[in-house]
Amino acid sequence: MFTFFNSESLWMGTDLQVFSHLRAVLKANQIPYKHKVSNRLGQWNGAGTTRGRMGSTGFPSDQMYQYEIFVYKKDLEKARYLIRQ
User: Does 46 or 26 have the greater pLDDT score?
Assistant: First the structure.
């Protein structure tokens, strides 16, 4: 089970194609992983969300989501090696 104490962030970014590629590499090499997707404009700012208060005009739609991949600490070096290839 992934917890704060036994996992590390392997990658964080906004590119969906890179995110999908990295997940495929980890799956092909049987490295367990967990991912998190955050909507950067949907964050609560007290008086509403960023998108609700200011809209999304001028914000690139391909950067609306932020992706993060976590792996176990024991698998981190192997995963870093594999994604560099």
Answer: 26
